[in-house]
Predict the structure.
Amino acid sequence: MTPIKIMIVEDEMITAESLKDMLEELGYEITGIHIRAEKALEAMEKEQPDFALLDINLKGEKTGIWLAQQLKDNHHIPYVFLTSYGDRITIEKATEVNPYGYLLKPIEKQNLFASIEVAIKKFSEIEHNNTQSEGVAMPDALFIKDEYLYIKIKYDDIQTIKANGNYIEIKTNEKKHLIKGTMDSFIQTLPESTFFRTHRSYAINIHLMEAFGGNFVKVGSEEIPLTPQNKEVLIQKLKLYQKT
């Protein structure tokens, strides 16, 4: 299972290091620690976090609330606010950007874990309402529900996708995952550069395709149905890859 990557934006280094230690003990991966909102925003593209912990009051001109608005407008990740202040004015300002959670310092490990998991669930439910699927698309991965947790699956690890009624089977290098949804809505959330729909009920990771011909595509040891029409589209797609 790929760990969830978290960015910490906190200008008190003792608090930031404590958060880092707790998060790593809980099985999360830390992409970086930043003390200024502007620097954190600049690092987003490089670090590609799945989640952010944002201190509301940061050093510099920009606040954590400003950063949250940037993440909301330009990046597709959930975030939780951290603060030492629980007064009404601070909370009202924070709620204007619809955070996925709110943690008062000092922060305990179990509260931290609960806030992150609840935030991811809330984020997933919002996306589910938009996409009609239990899978939540991120820049380089999916979050899907596995029992009581939402787990991260990298696109590079997905081999094939199969529709089965109102469910979708996602096959990775390690196991198969089953989520609710339809192929029509689910495939639209995935990057076209990585996934190709070979059949009404099947899609593949085009980078893991080993061979194709006749009426099938071979991915690993599996032969996936390929319709004549989609075969022509696949050939054209591969020609475009060749040109780039």
About this structure: Residues 109-131 form the longest helix (23 residues). The two ends are 32 Å apart (CA to CA).
